[in-house]
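User: Let's play a game. I give you a shape written as C-alpha cells, and you guess the letters that built it. Ready? Here's round one.
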C-alpha cells in the first residue's frame, strides 16, 4: 500500500511539532474487524487531571552523582544530561538528591563532631558538579537534608551550603530526612563491636517524628519550601493532615513506593521479586491506590504530592526482574496509574551499580558511554504518550489477561492511546474506537525478544546502541499509518509488548 500525498503531508506536519518523525507501510487493511478482536473504547470525558510539566523526573543518591555526571565541573556528562532531559521535553526535569544518603551525608560543620552514621561528605567539587549538571538540564531540585543525625546545627549548615552553591532559585524544596518510619528499627550505623545502632529509640513513632521535624526544620533557612515526610509507610500517609497542619512551610508532600521487596521477604510472598509479581495489578496500581487519600488531603491545602522515590524492587532491585523488559512494561503502566490518582510528579530512583538503574555510564578515551536499560524505554514511551498538558481519558475493554489500556488528549487535539500486552505468550487483536474522527492515525511499537530480555529493545524501531555515546535513539523510525475499519483501528498486539496509537483529530 502506498501512503497518499495528503497523508504524507500530515505526517510531515506532525513531525514538525514532534509528534511523529517517520512513517512505514502498514500492510493490507482488513475488510472488516476480525471476529476475535477485543473491543477497546476510548471515552471523551477526562479520567484524571492534566499531566503537569516535569511530571517524570529522577531521584539520585548523593554518592552517585559523580558517577553519572563525572568530576569535570565545566563539562558534566552530556549523555546523562540528554537522557534525563528527554524525560521532560520542553520542561524543567525535577531531580531529587537523596535516598539512604540523605541521612548518611553532611557538610563538615564547626562545633559539630562528625556523627557516626555519616558515610558521605559533601565537597566543593560535588557542589560544583551538581550546579553544572542542574544548569545543563534546566532542572529543579529537591535536596535531602539529614534528620537522623538529630542536629539542627548540622541540618542548617548543610542546607545553607546547598542553597548557596546550587542556587536557591533552582531548589523546589528541602526534604528533611528519609523514611523516618525505620529510624527505630533499621540500624543507622554499625559500631566498632559490630553492633547495629539505631538512629532513634525502638519506640520511635509518628508523634516522635512530628516533634523532630518541627524542631529541626525551624533551623532551616527561610524563603525556601520544605518537603516531607519522605515516607513509604501506609500509617504515615494517613497522618499527612497532621503533618501539614504542624508544618505549614511544607509545600511538597513526598512519599516512596517499591511494589516488590528483595530484603526480608519470603519467596512465597506476593511482594517477592519475580516478573509475574512485578506485572500483577497490585504491583502496577498499588502505589496509586495508596496515595489517593493523601492527594486529596494535600491538594485541599494547595500542597503538591510527589512520589519522589520509586522503582521496581526495594534494596537496589533484583537482577532478572528490575533490569529486564518486564520492568519497561511495569513502568508505563505504573506511571499512568499514578497520573490518574492525581500525583503531581514521580521520581525514578537510581544509584550506581543498582540492577534497577535505568542506565549506567563509563568514561574512556575522552568519551562517555551509556548502557541504556530496558526500563528507560518504558519511561520514554510514557513521555511520548502523556506530554505535559495532556488529559487522561477513560478507556474500556473486555477482560483479557495481560491487557492494559490508557489514553490522553493533548492540548492540540492529539489523541494518544497506549496498548500493553504484558503476557508472555498471548497475542491479541484489538479494535480501538476513538471518541473523535482522525485525519491521521499512526502506530509505533515498543518491543523486545521477551519479558526477560535485557537487550534487543526497540521503540518505534529505534534503540539506544550498546553502548551509546550520544544518549539518542538510533536507527530508522517506524510508525505505521492505520486506516479505520468499521470506525475502529485494528491493532495486532504482540506478546510482551506495548504500542502507542496516535490520532491527529479534526
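Assistant: Ready! My guess for every position:
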Amino acid at each position: 500500500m502506498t501512503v497518499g500525498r495528503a497523508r504524507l503531508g500530515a505526517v510531515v506536519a506532525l513531525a514538525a511539532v514532534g509528534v511523529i518523525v517517520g512513517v512505514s507501510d502498514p500492510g493490507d487493511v482488513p475488510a472488516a474487524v476480525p471476529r476475535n478482536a477485543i473491543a477497546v473504547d476510548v471515552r471523551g470525558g477526562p479520567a484524571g487531571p492534566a499531566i503537569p510539566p516535569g511530571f517524570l523526573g529522577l531521584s539520585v543518591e548523593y554518592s552517585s552523582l559523580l558517577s553519572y555526571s563525572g568530576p569535570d565541573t565545566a563539562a558534566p556528562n552530556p549523555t546523562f544530561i540528554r537522557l534525563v532531559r528527554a524525560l521532560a521535553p520542553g520542561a524543567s526535569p525535577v531531580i531529587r538528591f537523596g535516598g539512604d544518603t540523605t541521612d548518611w551525608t553532611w557538610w563538615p560543620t564547626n562545633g559539630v563532631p562528625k556523627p557516626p552514621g555519616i558515610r558521605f561528605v559533601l565537597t566543593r567539587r560535588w557542589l560544583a558538579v551538581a550546579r553544572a549538571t542542574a544548569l545543563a538540564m534546566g532542572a529543579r531540585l529537591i535536596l535531602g537534608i539529614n534528620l537522623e543525625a538529630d542536629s539542627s546545627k548540622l541540618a542548617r549548615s548543610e542546607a545553607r551550603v546547598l542553597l548557596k552553591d546550587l542556587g536557591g532559585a533552582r531548589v523546589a524544596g528541602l526534604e528533611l530526612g528519609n523514611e523516618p518510619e525505620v529510624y527505630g528499627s533499621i540500624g543507622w550505623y554499625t559500631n566498632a563491636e559490630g553492633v547495629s545502632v539505631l538512629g532513634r529509640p525502638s519506640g520511635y513513632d509518628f508523634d516522635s517524628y512530628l516533634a523532630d521535624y518541627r524542631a529541626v526544620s525551624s533551623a532551616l533557612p527561610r524563603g525556601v519550601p520544605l518537603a516531607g515526610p519522605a515516607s513509604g509507610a501506609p500509617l504515615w500517609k494517613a497522618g499527612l493532615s497532621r503533618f501539614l497542619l504542624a508544618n505549614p512551610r511544607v509545600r511538597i508532600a513526598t512519599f516512596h513506593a517499591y511494589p516488590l521487596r528483595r530484603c526480608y521477604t519470603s519467596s512465597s510472598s506476593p511482594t517477592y521479586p519475580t516478573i509475574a509479581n512485578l506485572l500483577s495489578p497490585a504491583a502496577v496500581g498499588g502505589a496509586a491506590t495508596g496515595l489517593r487519600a493523601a492527594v486529596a488531603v494535600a491538594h485541599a491545602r494547595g500542597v503538591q504530592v510527589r512520589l519522589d522515590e520509586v522503582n521496581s524492587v526495594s534494596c537496589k532491585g533484583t537482577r532478572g526482574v528490575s533490569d529486564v523488559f518486564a520492568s519497561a512494561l511495569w513502568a508505563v503502566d505504573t506511571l499512568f496509574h499514578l497520573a490518574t490518582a492525581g500525583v503531581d510528579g514521580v521520581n525514578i530512583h537510581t544509584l550506581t551499580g543498582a540492577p534497577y538503574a535505568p542506565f549506567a555510564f563509563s568514561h574512556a578515551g575522552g568519551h562517555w558511554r551509556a548502557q541504556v536499560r530496558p526500563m528507560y524505554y518504558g519511561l520514554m514511551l510514557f513521555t511520548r504518550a502523556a506530554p505535559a498538558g495532556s488529559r487522561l481519558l477513560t478507556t474500556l475493554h473486555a477482560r483479557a489477561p495481560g491487557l492494559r489500556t490508557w489514553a490522553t488528549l493533548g492540548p492540540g487535539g492529539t489523541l494518544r492511546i497506549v496498548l500493553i500486552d504484558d503476557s508472555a505468550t498471548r497475542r491479541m487483536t484489538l479494535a480501538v474506537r476513538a471518541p473523535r474522527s482522525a485525519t491521521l492515525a499512526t502506530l509505533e511499537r515498543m518491543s523486545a525478544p521477551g519479558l526477560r530480555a535485557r537487550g534487543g529493545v526497540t521503540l518505534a524501531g529505534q534503540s539506544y546502541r550498546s553502548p551509546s555515546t550520544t544518549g539518542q535513539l538510533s536507527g530508522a523510525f517506524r510508525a505505521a499509518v492505520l486506516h479505520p475499519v468499521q470506525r475502529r483501528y485494528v491493532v495486532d498486539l504482540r506478546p510482551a509488548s506495548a504500542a502507542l496509537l496516535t490520532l491527529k483529530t479534526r
